Write the structure tokens for this entry.
Amino acid sequence: MPTDTAPGAAAASGRPAASGVSPAPGVSAAELREAMGHFATGVTVITSVDEDGQPVGTTANAVTSLSLDPPLVLVCFDLGSVTLRAIRGHGAFVVNVLAAPQQHLSRNFARRGFAAAWDGVRHRRGPTGSPRLEDVLAVLECTVEHSLPGGDHEIIVGRVQHAETSAAPGAPLVFFRGTYASLCA
């Protein structure tokens, strides 16, 4: 959501509101979650290493391409994320784009308040030392370029240092209206 169109943003910044647009009443977290749930997204697992060199990861769909030149991606993390803390310390991370049959990985790395189980998760270390999950559709290995506040989240802008895609054809894992969905060809 662009910050210059957020409710009250114009008044808070001293800029006039857009012509013909009146400030909207506040939107609750539940309302925003419900509305954004109608926006289909791909599913990724963001991985890094903690201060002890141990792999960490979290499921994320707040991921987007930001720039082609330079190659940048944007990832948003809850402020309490163990993975965010590891990325701050390590300075690098991998965006692992999941395929449709990898719901188990998405669920494993979405365990709020618990560390993801790495037993049986096939991975290898990339050039930055961050874990790359095996058999995913794509990997984007990044170093931290910028970190910005984003409400109850932190926005990490990563410079893509290495990118690989799978040679095997496969459909992406998609999340829509609170559940996994498939793309129809």
Summary: The first helix runs from residue 9 to 13.
